[in-house]
Amino acid sequence: MKKKPIILVALTIIALASIYFTTFKGMPEPDRQPYITLGKKMAEETAKLLGNKGQIAVIINREFGAFPIPYLDIEMKVFMDSLKKTGITVAAMEKVEMEKVGLARPQAFLAAVENQKNADAIVSVVGFPTGPKQRPGGFKDFKAKIIVVSPYEPGLKRLLQDDIIQIAILPRFASQTGKDFQPAQTFDGGFELFTPREASRLP
Q1: Which CATH fold would you assign to the domain 29-201?
Q2: For the chain, what are the domain ranges?
């Protein structure tokens, strides 16, 4: 009778290993390159914003590290490795529940931001969702500077204009590439950086 649980565990391990080696290890180099350049740019802009010193917190989806998420794994490894070459350290990582792909549940996200408001910067790879009763201006009282790396959401423009978010790194829009977005091999080919100064260019 004990053989069944053992067999199930073994099959689960084999399945997870198969997913890892077919989606991550087996990923062609051209498919990795956009996320390598993205991770490097995230670290570069974080270091520039903080003057190459300080402590940051990262807000990420709660599944990270529990099982392979190929593109995110690449992006975050390069980001972390690149930060090691600066004077910046990752002091905390908040894992939050997701509302949809690329966007956290507002309540979970706001709790994570509140927890890390005294960091020198917060890097969110889960967008910047806010609840219906949240007063965005309240974030201006926080010490932390905020960097968002995520798909575009309409509220990001206002958050940048109000200087609540200092940097947003977003995929290039289809209208800018002339076709549906396909990650290019360079940062500028697939992504775009916005600061409060460039916010007016967002839809």
Answers
A1: Rossmann fold (3.40.50)
A2: 29-201
